[in-house]
């Protein structure tokens, strides 16, 4: 593949910064970054796009994870099993990623986003504070099941993983948005790492683009995590709803064009 032009690199850098900020606050940065890569590299294979997206995203999730860890101090008794399960699920998903057709990306993501957005809007009290629905082994089992399922999705497809993790931790386990965002970042770092363990030996990463993404994803991720910690759960919920709504419109239009364009 030809080297990207300066204009292409500037375009993906801007997308990576916005993706890093969004991902650190509510997750779902891949729904900005991955479409940007699809536009910038229209002839790239799906596995190349996924791998390069992960190379950029892992830098941002590492910084935002550390920021949340220092400032929110999430309970590691839940966060670590969640992250380990997500790592295992993502490994499995990454192995099947090369067999998934590019046309499958948008319809699957759209359906999940609509369900997530509708549920969040219908429950305005959701995520304002932590009110755990399970205790003991059931709680840890639910966290690990969440990690495996969403981790597999992240390895195989990827877009929206952070948002889905936040939603699952809030809507199913009962965490507040701030605590859920902190745990989600740790799990998302684990899924990105697992995917790259599979993708790098395959030679799937477009490294020049990946390094640009990584640099600007870090900047956006650091700023986003600090903003989320400072503003709290209400701010995160508002951003979550706005981001999910925007993604539904964007991906919905893509699906319409895909099947009827």
UniProtKB/TrEMBL annotation:
Has the keyword Transmembrane been applied to this entry? yes
Keyword field: Cell membrane, Membrane, Transmembrane, Transmembrane helix, Transport
The entry sums up its family as follows: Belongs to the 4-toluene sulfonate uptake permease (TSUP) (TC 2.A.102) family.
Q: What is this protein called?
A: Probable membrane transporter protein
Q: Which GO terms describe its cellular component?
A: plasma membrane
Segments traversing the membrane: 6-32, 79-98, 104-122, 143-173, 193-222, 234-253
Q: Name one Pfam family in it.
A: TauE
Where is it mainly found? membrane
Species name: Aeromicrobium camelliae
Superkingdom of this entry's organism? Answer: Bacteria
Query: Where is it located?
Result: Cell membrane
Q: How does it sit in the membrane?
A: Multi-pass membrane protein
